[in-house]
């Protein structure tokens, strides 16, 4: 840690806001604050087009937030594919779950795309915004006044350069993703890795329901399929544990376990994609949000809060966070970002006000993953009940998919539908047995209900904390 005991003087290396990470959060926040008249420095280790396997599906709630930010054009000219909802395939049987229509009667749309192409458009927008400076450099450490605990900026090192660069800011934002270098400077929590996604890119795949994201569930962990370009479809295979070498490793698992579970129309392109030399992967982590209370510093995006990417809610949370924090930190609310006490008050408000959306998406993602990756009989009962619940149609799909899409910001709606699924699962359990076996089902129903509580309540409690 580098000690700096004096306030920085205004100069060429001094800004109102320094943002570490030119990704989803960093670019949109830089664009927003720059338009407000703040001097913004955006730092990024590598400004070439990134190659990532997540952050490729933007739910309708994210598209709406992008419009509020004035960044809707970033979805143009990147071969983005409209998304109208989901197709859930359970043991070979499918149910279509379209996004519910809005007040105007029109069904909202999401977008799917190559992550790197979208990022490059966001960087162009940030670069074109007034008062924004983008520097390609690696942020190594924060500058901190040890006597007050105030973060004053960041120390950086450019590639191929031996000298360090010192950048000062009234507010430093860590938006450097799931593997954040600065998270530990603010909080003690560490991300909990629940599984990994292994990715394939399918060419000219024939999806059962074009224009819909697909979730394949059954006796194995879920598989996600969604089109990200005219000729490209992303396949994400969830693996809680790495397959053993004796079973053929990753390639053997994909060939012998995953492939047979897929719809027949997908299998030819999936087989072809299995010829790839490697299968990129990403950890699927859970990190509940913590109030930003470090003077002069703020965590945002995956550096602050993560959920399982099964529901594709990460970018929707991110853009809505930028809408909210942009308002809370606006010059109308905080004339000078050097007013640390006022900034901390607004960051506390941010923590609680964002929960109407973020809590819904966080809890839904973790709960659905537990059901879709069911690994015991009670969870499999809930999994089957969830699918049959969707088959009922009407509010049984409009309610849940409205939450998933990021357009319904009501935690009680999530609570209602989750326990409606639990009770419907118990009903199906009884209906599947002869009356002679109902006494056994009676006792089993208590186990199923208890399992439902074990699945959801820990995440509800985590969201209630500061």
UniProtKB/TrEMBL annotation:
Q: What is its main location?
A: endoplasmic reticulum
Report the top EC class in one word: oxidoreductase
The record places domain Squalene epoxidase at 168-442
Q: Which PROSITE patterns match?
A: PROKAR_LIPOPROTEIN
The topology of this chain with respect to the membrane is:
Multi-pass membrane protein
Pathways involved: Steroid metabolism; ergosterol biosynthesis
| InterPro entries xref list | FAD-dep_OxRdtase, FAD/NAD-bd_sf, Squalene_epoxidase, Squalene_monox
Q: Which UniProt keywords apply?
A: Endoplasmic reticulum, FAD, Flavoprotein, Lipid biosynthesis, Lipid metabolism, Membrane, Microsome, Oxidoreductase, Steroid biosynthesis, Steroid metabolism, Transmembrane, Transmembrane helix
In terms of superkingdom, the source organism counts as Eukaryota
UniProt keyword Transmembrane, yes or no: yes
Asked if NADP is a keyword of the record, the answer is no
Under the GO molecular function aspect, what terms does this record hold? Answer: flavin adenine dinucleotide binding; squalene monooxygenase activity
User: Which Gene Ontology BP annotations are present?
Assistant: ergosterol biosynthetic process
Gene3D superfamilies tied to this protein: FAD/NAD(P)-binding domain (3.50.50.60)
Gene Ontology terms, cellular component aspect? endoplasmic reticulum membrane
FAD dependent oxidoreductase domain location is 16-46
Task: List the signal peptide residues.
Answer: none
User: What are its cofactors?
Assistant: FAD
Question: Membrane-crossing residues?
Answer: 15-33, 413-434, 440-461
The EC designation for this entry is: 1.14.14.17
The task this protein performs is described as: Catalyzes the stereospecific oxidation of squalene to (S)-2,3-epoxysqualene, and is considered to be a rate-limiting enzyme in steroid biosynthesis.
As for family, the record states: Belongs to the squalene monooxygenase family.
Could you tell me what this protein is called?
Squalene monooxygenase
Q: Which organism is it from?
A: Choiromyces venosus 120613-1
């Amino acid at each position: 840690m580098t000690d700096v005991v004096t306030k920085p003087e205004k100069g060429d290396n001094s800004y109102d806001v320094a943002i570490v990470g030119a990704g989803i959060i960093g670019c949109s926040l830089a664009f927003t604050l720059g338009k407000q008249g703040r001097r913004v420095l955006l730092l990024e280790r590598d400004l070439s087009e990134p190659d990532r396997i997540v952050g490729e599906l933007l739910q309708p709630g994210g598209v709406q937030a992008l419009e509020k930010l004035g960044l809707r054009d970033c979805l143009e000219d990147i071969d983005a594919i409209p998304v109208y909802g989901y197709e859930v395939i359970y043991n070979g049987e499918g149910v279509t779950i379209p996004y519910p229509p809005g007040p105007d009667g029109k069904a909202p749309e999401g977008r799917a795309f190559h992550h790197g192409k979208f990022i490059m458009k966001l960087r162009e927008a940030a670069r074109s915004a007034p008062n924004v400076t983008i520097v390609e450099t690696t942020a190594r450490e924060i500058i901190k006044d040890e006597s007050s605990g105030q973060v004053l900026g960041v120390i950086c090192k450019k590639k191929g350069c031996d000298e360090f660069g010192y950048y000062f800011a009234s507010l430093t934002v860590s938006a450097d993703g799931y593997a954040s270098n600065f998270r530990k400077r603010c909080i003690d929590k560490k991300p909990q890795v629940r599984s990994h996604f292994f990715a394939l890119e399918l060419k000219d795949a024939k999806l059962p329901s074009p224009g819909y994201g697909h979730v394949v569930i059954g006796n194995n962990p879920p598989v996600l399929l969604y089109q990200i370009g005219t000729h490209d479809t992303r396949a994400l295979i969830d693996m809680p544990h790495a397959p053993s070498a004796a079973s053929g490793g990753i390639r053997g698992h994909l060939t012998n376990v995953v492939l047979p579970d897929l719809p027949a129309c997908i299998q030819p392109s999936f087989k072809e994609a299995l010829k790839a030399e490697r299968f990129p992967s990403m950890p699927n982590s859970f990190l509940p949000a913590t109030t930003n209370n470090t003077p002069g510093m703020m965590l945002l995006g995956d550096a602050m809060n993560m959920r399982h990417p099964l529901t594709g809610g990460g970018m929707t949370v991110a853009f809505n966070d930028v809408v909210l924090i942009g308002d809370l930190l606006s010059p109308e609310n905080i004339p000078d970002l050097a007013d640390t006490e006022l900034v901390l008050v607004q960051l506390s408000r941010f923590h609680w006000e964002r929960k109407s959306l973020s809590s819904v998406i966080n809890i839904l993602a973790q709960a659905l993953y537990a059901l879709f990756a069911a690994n015991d009989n009670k969870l499999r009962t809930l999994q089957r009940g969830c699918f049959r619940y969707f088959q009922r149609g009407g509010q049984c799909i409009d309610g849940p998919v409205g939450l998933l899409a990021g357009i319904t910001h009501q935690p009680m709606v999530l609570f209602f539908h989750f326990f409606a699924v639990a009770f419907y699962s118990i009903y199906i359990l009884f209906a599947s047995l002869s009356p002679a076996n109902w006494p056994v089902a009676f006792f089993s129903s208590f186990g199923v209900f208890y399992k439902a509580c074990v699945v959801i309540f820990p995440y509800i409690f985590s969201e209630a904390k500061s």
